[in-house]
Amino acid sequence: MVLDDEQRCPCLSGNPYGECCGPLHAGAAAPTAERLMRSRFTAFALGLPEYLLLTWHPLTRPAELTLDPAQRWTRLDILSTRSGGPFDSAGQVAFRAWWRTDDDRGTLEETSEFVREQGRWFYIDGVIA
């Protein structure tokens, strides 16, 4: 899926894609762990596995990532954040994401760990609730 910069961002921040996750997908550094989390959700929604691998910490990143094209990610709610600000070196984001396929629908609830190295945030791993 390709989005116009003026379309609402899939992460539901309320901002247009070109002012929200679009610049991060184009290479800008996320200022906070939450913004990285939102951009990763949007990458799932848009089918951008390369971005997901790029923002996954090398110590925990899989060798490859294949997304299910039948699974559509439709909504993201940030439940809580701990640290992860512009001056922090680590952070945690708890979220709930809604998905659907032609035959099913559900949610994923996870608390994700992030680390910031050399000015860039990376996803480490998460605990699914």
TrEMBL record:
What Gene3D superfamilies does the record tag this protein with? 3.10.450.50
Family assignment?
Belongs to the UPF0225 family.
Q: Which InterPro entries match?
A: NTF2-like_dom_sf, YchJ-like, YchJ-like_M
Q: Which SUPFAM superfamilies match?
A: NTF2-like
Q: Which protein, by its recorded name, is this? A: UPF0225 protein NS263_13690
Pfam families recorded: YchJ_M-like (PF17775)
Task: Report the residue ranges that make up the YchJ-like middle NTF2-like domain in this protein.
Answer: 32-126
